């Protein structure tokens, strides 16, 4: 079934908004574990968490300006993100970076698709997406650089990261 342009418009906005909230939770969870197990990672994770908080606020403003509704309870995305972030961080520092590299690559693809849609329908939203994409790319590249090659833990992290990102998006479309 083909969604109307209006429905696609608000769906993109609410998915990005909710998933940014989820991202704040993931980095918060990673940082919480890193503070006692891998303190050297704290500055990077704090910077990334700060970016996600900005992205969430930016898309909150856009939802209001465009009269689109947010997901029912954004706190659920935050809580789910924290749970995911803590569990993955407990699997080790490589797990943090591998998970980040995978999720940020998915985020990049989603944002590129959304940006393409908004280029045709709303240049203001498209510009906002292009702006946050720069941060997401930096997150992805930093995480990839810290998780080069292959390790056994990747076999566990990959399906978790993909499922987590998919669940976050699917729920945001429905709730
Ligand atoms: Fe983000
Ligand atoms: Fe990010």
TrEMBL record:
Keywords: Iron, Membrane, Metal-binding, Monooxygenase, Oxidoreductase, Transmembrane, Transmembrane helix, Ubiquinone biosynthesis. The keyword GTP-binding does not apply. One of its GO terms (molecular function) is 3-demethoxyubiquinol 3-hydroxylase activity. GO terms for biological process: ubiquinone biosynthetic process. Its EC number is 1.14.13.-. The chain crosses the membrane at residues 71-91. Pathway: Cofactor biosynthesis; ubiquinone biosynthesis. It is an enzyme of class 1 (oxidoreductase). This is 2-nonaprenyl-3-methyl-6-methoxy-1,4-benzoquinol hydroxylase. The gene is coq7.
């Amino acid at each position: 079934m083909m969604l109307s342009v209006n429905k696609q418009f608000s769906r993109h906005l609410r998915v990005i908004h909710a998933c940014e909230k989820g991202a704040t939770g993931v980095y918060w969870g990673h940082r919480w574990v890193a503070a006692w197990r891998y303190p050297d990672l704290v500055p990077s994770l704090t910077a990334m968490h700060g970016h996600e908080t900005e992205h969430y606020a930016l898309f909150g403003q856009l939802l209001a300006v465009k009269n689109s509704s947010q997901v029912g309870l954004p706190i659920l995305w935050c809580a789910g993100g924290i749970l995911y972030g803590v569990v993955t961080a407990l699997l080790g520092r490589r797990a943090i970076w591998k998970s980040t590299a995978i999720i940020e690559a998915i985020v990049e693809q989603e944002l590129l698709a959304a940006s393409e849609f908004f280029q045709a329908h709303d240049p203001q939203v498209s510009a906002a997406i292009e702006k946050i994409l720069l941060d997401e790319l930096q997150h992805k590249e930093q995480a990839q650089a810290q998780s080069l090659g292959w390790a056994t833990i990747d076999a566990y992290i990959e399906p978790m990261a993909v499922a987590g990102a998919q669940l976050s998006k699917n729920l945001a479309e429905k709730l």
